[in-house]
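Readers of this paper often ask what the protein records in our data store actually look like. An entry from our holdings is shown next, in its original layout:
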Amino acid sequence: MTMYFKFFKNAFASNFEYKFDAIFRGLVQVIEIVVQISVWTALYYFNNNSGISKDNIDLKVMIYYVIISAGISILVNNNVINIIDKKIRTGEISSDLIKPINFQAYMFSIATADNIYNFIFRFIPVLLIFIPFYGIYIPSIKTAIIFLISLINGVLISFLLAYILGLVGFWYLSIWHLERIYMR
């Protein structure tokens, strides 16, 4: 277990080499959220002026949804398919497979490190920017527990699907197109 934690630490530390990338991705995340909030605000304004019912869903709830879904997408998305594809094309996978480690656990530790890094340096700043404007919605304990269980299951399922599609690379020359299909 400590070996996989070392893989986790190395993958997390390697993300610090590209600080500008993290800053740029954080800015892009803020812009995406602002655009989505603007679209929802325009839709709600149109609905209020046209007399169309909005089914008792408040604009503030939709804004919380936009912000939370951005955080979920950061945690669920991973780069496993591209990593495995690169390892197969370069032949690096052969040295990984002869090591006395579980390759799936190794890839999971790398994906987890990337996701936690992205969550800390992309989503937490987004929260700090938007909390003063929209406040914090605190759900009930029951809702929070169900959400966390669902989120953990979603992260695991997303990793396993990406891992399986990455392993398809053993039979095909390139699998970048599978990653494009999977992420959309």
In short: The two ends are 33 Å apart (CA to CA).
